Amino acid sequence: MKPAAVKPAFDVEEIRAQFPILKELVHGKPLVYFDNAATSQKPRRVIKAESAYYATINANVHRGVHTLSTKATEAQEAARETIRKHINAKHAHEVIFTSGTTASLNLAASSLGHLLLKPGDEVLISGMEHHANIVPWQMVCERYGAVLKVIPITDEGELEPRRRDDATEYFNERTKVFAITHVSNTLGTINPVKELIAEARKRGIITVVDGAQAIAHLNVDVQDLGCDLYAFSGHKAYGPTGTGVLYGREELLNVMPPWQGGGEMIDVVTFEKTTYAKLPFKFEAGTPHIAGIIGLGEAIRWMEDYDKAAMAAHEHLLLEHATKELLAIDGLRIIGTAKEKVGVISFVINGVHHYDLGTLLDQQGIAVRTGHHCTQPLMERFGVSGTTRASFACFNTVEEVEVMMVATKKAVKMLR
Amino acid sequence: MSGTLAQTQQELVSEFAMFTDWQDRYEHLIELGKDLPLIAPEHKTDDNLVRGCQSRVWLNAEYRASTPLSAGTVHFTADSDAMITKGIVALLVRVFNDRTPQEIIGASTDFIDQIGLRAHLSPNRANGLSAMVDQMKRYALAYSAQSH
Question: For the domain A12-38+308-415, what is the CATH code?
Fold first, then answer.
């Protein structure tokens, strides 16, 4: 007997219809876009919101008394409130707009370094970090004489477990900052950040989470996670490029020194001394990417309309299907087999260079990422020079995974 | 070697014009890679790596001095760990190999576009084609200074 018809959580065809780019042809073939971990495509609503700002209310924010400036300010601040609610921050002023995760993490590292790093102190990261969560910390460690420590990664692509007999293995009395990725961009691993943050906070360690790969796929609740800072980009979550957020706990942001100086971030400027504006403006020097921020607000509202959990379930289906099908290819090895993963699948094939495979997939209309994915230390850990990575979004389909499988087999045949 | 540098370029363009479909074009490119004059193992060093390619490309150049009968020429050998890249290097080597430094420096590279490998000419840092051409021209420039 057939089970009773269940209303699908969402209709993927209906979702696809909202992404104009999915109608494009690449080399005369329908685009199959599997590079969402680099940047996701944008639904029409987001594109419209961004252009409507320029067409109807373009003006600088927080500056003028005129009507357009007021409207632009209201639209930008509405986006801030949308994001606050979405990540469950206590206050809207805990949401700082940046140009992306990289800028958010540079702000965090630069400001925290100045606030608390002394010679001999340690900053702890993991072996699966993106360069954006490695290099800024290296730079401040060098500046203040601190030391960068790294949690090792297992063969499955998970954090090396902490030893039961020594609960403090990751952390010690010198650890001042713990900066960790929520989800690995290369492996897809979802890290148990909540537990680790709880451990770190017990020891008075400041916690920073790189949420670039999490925000479009997981429900992120910063109060529940308990982190001090949480960074993410808009463009990986169906929003415009050049937008990002650094969430920070109010008490911490209040004592963190500003990162960049300029307009908007000041209270009173004299040549002798400048006093800074209140949160969040203290960290938002210069004119922000107003159109992008408005687009980002719309992207978040769009995701909320579709229920992230349903999107994640759909992406998980694609991941399982792709994993099963790929493993049937002779000599294929998946890099990143953690128990908890988002829809990211990185692989290498014996005798096939990732650049060749990426090129031949592109000829067949399929966009994947090849290379080291800005995680060179992780590549070294797995003994590979790069991988081919497919990363899924809610608009991808099982049929597209099938297209990739046929195309991959064809490419492998040509290359062997 | 037969013909001028421009003739070799034209030959390649005609060769690739026979292929109407991407698969044949790339299969031919991969085949060309198999004829590449391979770099000697002792020259496969980090110093000979061409910067700006996602795959690794090693390129070596040797100057063969002029004799009373012939002008001095540059001899290239190369290798890559990716097959398509190897095919592209082979294309370049076929055009530029054993030419005088002046010929190499003055050569246009429009033929690559005409062959239908435009994607490999893009400013994408994954594609090192322009880096390879630059490197070959730099060698030629160095030898041209030497030969004067």
Answer: 3.90.1150.10
